[in-house]
From TrEMBL:
<dbReference type="InterPro" id="IPR011991">
    <property type="entry name" value="ArsR-like_HTH"/>
</dbReference>
<feature type="domain" description="HTH arsR-type">
    <location>
        <begin position="223"/>
        <end position="295"/>
    </location>
</feature>
<keyword id="KW-0804">Transcription</keyword>
<dbReference type="GO" id="GO:0003700">
    <property type="term" value="F:DNA-binding transcription factor activity"/>
</dbReference>
<dbReference type="InterPro" id="IPR001845">
    <property type="entry name" value="HTH_ArsR_DNA-bd_dom"/>
</dbReference>
<protein>
    <submittedName>
        <fullName>ArsR family transcriptional regulator</fullName>
    </submittedName>
</protein>
<dbReference type="InterPro" id="IPR051011">
    <property type="entry name" value="Metal_resp_trans_reg"/>
</dbReference>
<dbReference type="GO" id="GO:0003677">
    <property type="term" value="F:DNA binding"/>
</dbReference>
<dbReference type="InterPro" id="IPR036388">
    <property type="entry name" value="WH-like_DNA-bd_sf"/>
</dbReference>
<dbReference type="Pfam" id="PF12840">
    <property type="entry name" value="HTH_20"/>
</dbReference>
<keyword id="KW-0238">DNA-binding</keyword>
<keyword id="KW-0805">Transcription regulation</keyword>
<dbReference type="InterPro" id="IPR036390">
    <property type="entry name" value="WH_DNA-bd_sf"/>
</dbReference>
Length: 300
């Protein structure tokens, strides 16, 4: 449910072009007509209705949709009131705020149809990324305990027992009061972490995972890039395409040695796919427009 909601931001915002542009071009035209019901509740930026991401015991889409259908009328009304404070809502949301079954059912059906059209074709790749993140977190727990996990959660994370500080779009405090904090790695979360607006609900922290440019390309295209450049060099190009980074960061992102990262970046620079400049004691690598076109598999 979180991926469904956050993907709606990625679908309409021209940010993260390296990672999401190809998916946006492919998935956007497939969005069903009733996707407009979702975009009414998920504006291009800012607050989206909390009830769209219910906490469930099960982890399937069916579990999330069933929880959405059972949303209490009070919660529907409360969340829509918050949303109405920031933007004008269309008339159909009145029936939703009143908890009318036909309105709630139509909304749940719209979520399912959007998922099947725009996310299901890529779901194996998305869950593969999330699985690797969970494995990484498991290794961090084994290596340094939960303190290590919290410190490594996001570049803005600062853990000073008993407070975790993170970059966030607005000033907000979440007091656990003895409750656990559910960490949710998200593929379509970009930039800063996010959480529910209502702090009285089960505490959850959704944070972005590292992405691989070209993830939504057909398998043949992805294989061709590795065949053209070599597997390691293709990974280095994708790592630099994700965001400008130092040689040390390239090595970390690609799980290679520092000399290998430096050698591959130099080869890519010679081919005009990346540029490099001195940044203090480090060298900062950035992808060029030619490198972006190669990753995206688009026209020259």
């Amino acid at each position: 449910m979180w991926e469904t909601l956050l993907s709606l931001y990625r679908l309409r915002r021209r940010t993260g072009e390296v990672v999401f542009a190809q998916w946006r071009r492919s998935a956007g035209p497939q969005a069903p007509a009733d996707t407009r019901l979702l975009t009414d509740l998920v504006p291009p930026s800012g607050y989206a209705a909390d009830f769209l991401t219910p906490v469930t015991d099960g982890l399937t889409l069916a579990d999330g949709l069933e929880a959405l259908r059972r949303t209490p009328r009070r919660r529907l009304s409360q969340d829509l009131s918050v949303l109405a404070g920031a933007r004008r809502l269309p008339s159909w949301t009145t029936a939703l705020a009143e908890g009318r079954p036909e309105a709630v059912t139509r909304l749940a059906d719209a979520v399912e149809q959007y998922f099947e059209a725009c996310l299901a074709p890529y779901w194996t790749r998305i869950t593969g990324h999330l699985g690797r993140e969970r494995a990484r977190q498991t290794a961090l727990v084994a290596d340094g305990g939960w303190e290590r996990v919290l410190e490594d959660l996001h570049p803005t994370a600062r853990w000073h027992y008993p407070v975790l500080e993170l970059g966030y779009p607005v000033d907000q405090e979440l007091h656990l009061g003895g409750r656990g904090l559910q960490l949710v790695p998200s593929f379509f979360c970009q930039g800063l972490p996010t959480t529910l607006f209502d702090g009285d609900r089960e505490p959850v922290l959704v944070y972005p995972v590292r992405h691989e440019p070209g993830w939504s390309a057909p398998d043949g295209t992805r294989t061709s890039l590795a065949s053209l450049l070599g597997r390691t060099r293709a990974r280095v190009l994708a790592a630099i395409g994700e965001s400008p980074c130092t040689t040390s960061e390239v090595a970390r992102r690609t799980a290679t040695t520092l000399p290998t990262a430096s050698q591959q970046a130099s080869a890519l620079r010679g081919a005009g796919l990346v540029t490099s400049r001195q940044n203090g004691q480090s060298v900062l690598h950035s992808i060029t427009s030619l490198g972006l076109a190669l990753l995206a598999g688009g026209p020259s």
